[in-house]
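Q: Please design a sequence for this.
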């Protein structure tokens, strides 16, 4: 029922393109051939003037590559980003010169910061018009310099197959990141005989699995073996490397607690006895943060370990305890912790090196450590000091309760997405995940609002036919609601759950805590999300009780389809989410957290 059908009927192969001889190959054909040969089956994009020839080539290849029409270039990039994360592969997005390129940068920023492999293909003005002030002219190389690690301009059609292969290789090599291939419209139209060298298939992620230097591994193994309270902080590099099992084996061998960043959520099984959940300053419980703060040796695996991940450099503290960092990028290993022991290399490879080198813990000490880890994981969330009975009157529900009801009503390990704001900390703490893997996608590279609605399209394309849930909020909805038409058009099995508090709640909470409650620019007018979703062709309901929510979720589980639920929740000022710095702020600490 949920298989995506081609959006156009393929052109009769015998038909000739006006202005070209029958059977003549152009640069646009070579470009599409190269994508197909590289195993690309899905392309997200928005058409524009300079890309007309490319769309003509795509029209002829609908049996080989699906084009998913987005309603905005930023959203198309979010789709490609989530497709890459969910499928552990390269996501591909296409836009045209001018507005298309400037819009797509917003989506690529998140992917770049989060280490997600995305291939951006952009068309450009005719090379002969460069410097003339032509409509849509912009220096694309300069534009993309901050959000890609590799950018090339194709100057002739013959080099397109090689450039596509090179771009895909760059995207998955080292630390994954977006790359850009810029193709002027004259190159797309240029006759060529160039073809891909061979059908290489999809690029493998990670492209290479380098080992860390033996001397550094030996020293790290010594530190970990001698530690009395070792802990691991795991990030998305564990998912990219598929290092889940090896990480759990190492934790069991050492008797080490395993915490994750939000990007690393699912680095070990949800019922792994050594797991303490997410740590940091956006969706963490006090027990987990305390255990990380009190660890006497910390192993960082595939994580930036920035201020948010480490609760403003308190877990672990800079210079406080030995820190060991595994990272595929040698320049990042130990970057945030001066004096850290760097283990540059692939996460799974280096974890296996450590597993072979550490001393196995005896059973008595293992049992003692396990008791401490389970106690930390079970420490309760602090009650919000601002909670009052009136906070949940008038048909409002508590956001943590909403997450638990949705999780309980859907099959185990249903893919879940979360926007910034109310969704992120509540999903990070209260969404239960049983199996290891990246089934929860939260954009914490930049934390862009409006991500979860278009990203749901990307996850649905990566996992066709699998029902999923996307948690959003009224502020993010206003930025991305047009993509509900995309979901409706493709009839994707997505349950959208909107937290509505009629404000830009995160920023308003910061103003509440740190600027003397002077609220400014954070109270937009209300949008009727149910009406808008309905106008986009999505079934939508305003939900005003826990029983109704449970019933709606059960109905979705039985009949997966596009479904939008709008739920009123208290403002963060009245019901504080699990954000440790805000607990401190409400207790009187007026110092803003360091990001």
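A: Design:
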């Amino acid at each position: 029922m949920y298989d995506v059908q081609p959006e156009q009927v393929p052109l009769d192969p015998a038909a000739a393109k006006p202005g070209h001889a029958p059977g003549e190959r152009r640069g646009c054909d070579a470009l599409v051939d190269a994508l197909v040969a590289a195993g690309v089956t899905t392309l997200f994009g928005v058409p524009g003037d300079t890309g007309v020839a490319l769309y003509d080539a795509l029209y002829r290849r609908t049996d080989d590559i699906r084009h998913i029409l987005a309603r905005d270039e930023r959203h198309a990039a979010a789709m490609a980003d989530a497709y890459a994360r969910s499928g552990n592969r390269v996501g591909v997005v296409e836009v045209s010169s001018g507005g298309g390129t400037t819009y797509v940068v917003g989506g690529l920023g998140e992917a770049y910061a989060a280490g997600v492999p995305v291939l951006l293909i952009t068309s450009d003005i005719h090379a002969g018009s460069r410097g003339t002030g032509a409509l849509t002219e912009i220096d694309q190389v300069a534009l993309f310099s901050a959000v890609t690690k590799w950018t090339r301009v194709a100057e002739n059609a013959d080099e397109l197959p090689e450039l596509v292969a090179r771009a895909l290789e760059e995207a998955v090599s080292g630390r994954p990141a977006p790359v850009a291939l810029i193709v002027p419209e004259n190159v797309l139209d240029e006759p060529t005989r160039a073809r891909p060298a061979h059908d290489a298939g999809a690029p493998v992620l990670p492209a290479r699995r380098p080992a860390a230097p033996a001397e550094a591994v030996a020293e790290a193994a010594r530190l970990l073996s001698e530690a009395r309270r070792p802990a691991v902080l795991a990030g998305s590099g564990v998912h990219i490397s598929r290092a889940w099992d090896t990480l759990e084996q190492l934790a069991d061998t050492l008797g080490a607690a395993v915490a994750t960043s939000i990007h690393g959520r699912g680095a070990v099984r949800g019922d792994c006895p050594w797991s303490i959940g997410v740590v940091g300053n956006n969706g963490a419980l006090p027990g987990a943060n305390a255990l990380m703060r009190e660890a006497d040796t910390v192993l960082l695996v595939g994580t930036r370990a920035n201020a948010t991940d480490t609760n403003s450099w308190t877990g672990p503290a800079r210079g406080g305890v030995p820190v060991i960092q595994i990272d595929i990028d040698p320049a990042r290993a130990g970057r945030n912790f001066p004096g850290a022991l760097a283990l540059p290399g692939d996460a799974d490879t280096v974890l296996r090196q450590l597993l072979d080198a550490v001393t196995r813990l005896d059973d008595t000490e293992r049992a003692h450590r396990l008791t401490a880890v389970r106690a930390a994981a079970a420490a309760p969330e602090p009650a919000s000091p601002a909670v009052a009975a009136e906070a949940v009157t008038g048909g409002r529900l508590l956001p943590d309760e909403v997450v638990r009801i949705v999780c309980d009503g859907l099959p185990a390990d249903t893919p879940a997405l979360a926007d910034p704001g109310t969704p992120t900390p509540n999903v990070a703490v209260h969404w239960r995940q049983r199996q290891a893997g990246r089934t929860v996608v939260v954009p914490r590279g930049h934390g862009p609002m409006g991500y979860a609605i278009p990203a749901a399209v990307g996850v649905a394309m990566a996992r066709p036919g699998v029902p999923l849930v996307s948690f959003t909020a009224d502020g993010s909805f206003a930025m991305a609601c047009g993509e509900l038409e995309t979901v409706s058009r493709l009839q994707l099995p997505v349950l959208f759950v909107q937290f509505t508090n009629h404000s830009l709640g995160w920023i308003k909470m910061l103003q509440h805590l740190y600027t003397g409650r002077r609220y400014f620019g954070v109270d937009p007018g209300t949008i009727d999300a149910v009406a808008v979703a309905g106008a986009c062709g999505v079934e939508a309901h305003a939900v005003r009780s826990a029983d109704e929510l449970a019933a709606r979720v059960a109905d979705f589980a039985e009949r997966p389809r596009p479904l939008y639920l709008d739920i009123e929740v208290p403002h963060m000022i009245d019901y504080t989410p699990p954000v440790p710095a805000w607990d401190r702020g409400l207790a009187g600490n007026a110092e803003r957290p360091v990001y």
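Q: Thanks. Anything notable?
A: DSSP finds 22 helices and 18 strands in the chain. The longest helix spans residues 99-114.
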